[in-house]
Fold this sequence. Notes:
The protein is 21% helix and 26% strand. The protein has helices at residues 56-61, 80-87, 175-178, 198-207, 213-233; strands at residues 13-17, 20-24, 34-39, 44-48, 65-70, 91-94, 108-111, 121-127, 132-138, 143-146, 150-151, 164-165, 185-188. Strand 3 and strand 4 (44-48) form a beta hairpin.
Amino acid sequence: MPIKSYGRGEAPDVHRWDGGCTWVAHPEETMHRASHAVATGDGGVLVVEPVDVVGLDDLLAELGEVSGVAVLAGLHRRDAAAVARRHGVPVFLPATVAGLASRVDAPVEVFEGTLPGTGFRAVPVLDGHPWSEAVLHDPASGTLVATEVLVTSARTTGPGERLAVGPYARLQPPRDALAGLDVERVLVGHGPPLLADADAALDHALANSYRGIPGYLLQDLVFMLRAGYVALRD
């Protein structure tokens, strides 16, 4: 199985949940890149870090009219610009990843605090190069969107972990930023959405970040190094 597949996905895995959906464009790739569409409550739809797939516009139309595309992690431009241009909407960048603006071929809006037109608040969690990221949290729905710093994919979690701090942040888990958030679901950038017992899973992921390193490394150190190379190369 390839670490990363290219081009539009033709047979995505789609996960529907109350108020949105998640799709994995290329289920065959081991990076298991996931994208999300979230209804904003006013008929709009926020698309988060899309990897394009055949039939995506029809999938999004089930939720409403696309009102914006968001990129939250410094290495996750993906197909955000293409989807934004297709729908005539801007790409929203949290201030933490504002440096991406010059590399996005679409209108860009940089924001701090609440993402315009939504109830999502941006919370910075990684502020370095190349690992920069903000998460989005909606207190009303309990939705947390964390596309790099949290993972669910079997190749990026350790034994017994439903949710884990991403491999490149395990030594710097964002406990202060994420502790105390009301979380009903977690949407990640690598792996399926976590839709049940999300609060407990998040607490465990943050508390177990250091202790889980040996198990994760024993499971797949080679994959982590190869995935890091692919991410930096693109």
